[in-house]
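= Tokenised fold =
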Amino acid sequence: KNAYTIEQWYQRRVRGQPLVTMFTVALCVLSLVASCHGYRLMEEEDGVVDYTGYKTIRVDLSGSAGAAAVVREWVDEERVDVLNEGIGDEADLLVGPNEWESVTGELENLAASYEILSEDVVGDVETERAQLLSAVPGVFDFNNYYAVKYMHSHLDALVSRHPGKAETFSLGQTYQGRDMKAIRISNNVASSGSKPIIWVDGGIHAREWVSSATVMYIVNSLLGEVEPSLQSKFQGLMNKYQFVILPMSNPDGYEFSRTGNRFWRKTRRPSGCKYGYETSNGRCIYGKCYGVDPNRNWDIDFGRQGVSKNPCSDVYPGKSAFTEKNTQAMSSWLAKHASQIDLYLSFHSYSQLFLKPVGYDRNPPVDAAMHNAAGSAVVNAIYGTHGKVYKNIRSVELYPTSGSSQDWMYSKGVKNAYTIELRDTGRHGFQLPASQIIPTGEENVRGFLALLETL
């Protein structure tokens, strides 16, 4: 996250090299110039990120014709990180201390107003880390955010307690060898293979911790571990459907967001050199890049909108569709069972939105009326729980995107394919306090039931 000093650059890039060609020297000089203008040289191996001095801001893009284009430039140059683009006219940005004056100065020159969401990002991160450390090892509940291994062990424990209703299976393994463990829930689960499928997933973006926690809450609700008042409704649905649920679809990225970079979004497979620049011996000039955005990596309108060609970008879609082991595993299973799937639902955070197909075309799809009705049912049920307002919009109204799982499923004939963006609307963003896990689960399990009733 930090630019090298000239001495550090000299030590790492020149001294000790057996031969430095003129081409390499030229690129290195260019890299120093670029660093002075906001292009940051990065370590060969990324590790723990220190967010001291970082702030988050919300920029109003509606009052300035050039603000949106400038923000896109900053993002591509990695001067800022976009946290959430908002609904077309705002962007939430993570800004470091080295960029603060120039970014805010340029916004003022553009007459683009902004508000500070968090003055002390590192304080927020440390508060959250202290909460994580308070967890009792081996215990899973909804009072904290837990490591993948504890989520998976909890799924296994649920199967042990409900052997006639639940079974776990693995879709495959990630780049780093972690299991992609799913749970199948239905009455008489062993003989439920011919029932229509309700698919639910979470955690496709690593930093969106509450998404997996909410999916785990739905799993526990289906099995009567929580929400006893809803059991009569769930029992009828479990007679009709089989629920296939993947709480953690990007476990590598999630674990890195817990131990290295709290705002990590992507997978963890090395993805290339920044801007493609490397030395004659294969070392990266600007930095080594890791990961692909797994919700831009699906084979639908691939690589066209809402993406970057820079492998270090948060929205890098990969060189081609399905380059990542987790998207390969998910898409393989989903394609095989597409004719059985009545609902595809993916949980993300944040912004409090119900997102309908599609994200890459402003023309409404043929099923738009059905999608509108489904969305209305969900947001009304959510509002009736704790009074939280979720907006019912098409994905493209948020911002145009290509390569999402929702749109790929819709293209495979699953007419009910949706995404829900969970709490909150920006103050905490991805760092939603653990105290909000249960209320977020409560409102969304009721939204989920309302959605099922529209099928």
User: Anything to note?
Assistant: Confidence is low (pLDDT under 50) at residues 1-45. The two ends are 46 Å apart (CA to CA). The first helix runs from residue 6 to 13.
